[in-house]
Design brief:
CATH topology: Rossmann fold
CATH class: Alpha Beta
CATH architecture: 3-Layer(aba) Sandwich
Helix content: 40-55%
Number of helices: 8
Radius of gyration: 18 Å
Number of domains: 1
Shape: globular
Order of helices and strands: EHEHHEEHEHEEHHH
Strand content: 15-25%
CATH superfamily: Flavodoxin domain
Distance between the termini: 47 Å
Oligomer: single chain
Number of strands: 7
Length: 204
Amino acid sequence: MTRSIAVVTAGLSQPSTSRLLADRLAQATDRALRLHDEHTIVTVVELRELAHEITDNLLTGFAAPRLAEAIKAVTTADAVIAVSPVFSASYSGLFKSFFDVLDDGVLEGKPVLVGATGGTARHSLALEFALRPLFAYLRAAVAPTAVFAASEDFASAGAGKSLAGRAERAGRELADLVLRRPLAGPVDPFDNPTPFEQLLGNNG
């Protein structure tokens, strides 16, 4: 069986530590799912490439084609991995703006793994008082382990092992949430139609 994972990363540089962390989390989730004979299709949404389209959507209410494709990838995925750099003790404005343009309810019940990056470990609390509350408000099913990576996690072999361990645990938790949930997919508007007699009754 094939599962789809949408990876949303809000790093501003190229390459960014947010993208590096997101890739690790996606790989860990893929490994965990393969243990259950599940295969994954990973779609990466780099928000830095969609910044103008996101702003236009906030102003006009309409999504340009590239943004619409990214939104579809996120809303139809079986799981979402969302990683933001920490700015001023919270997620980036670009990260929040992308989730602001999603329709209400599209993430309800969807398995989500959150991650964040920052210069030092003192920014790690942003995961618990900023990112997790955001996805709880969106009624997503957030994995218990959130992963923070400081700059030193990518530079030090010892710290890198610690990051790898946290990523593997988070990937297993996200895989478990995915396996408990039915396959995602587009909603057929003709499934369970309202009987014509009931429609007439409502209008009477």
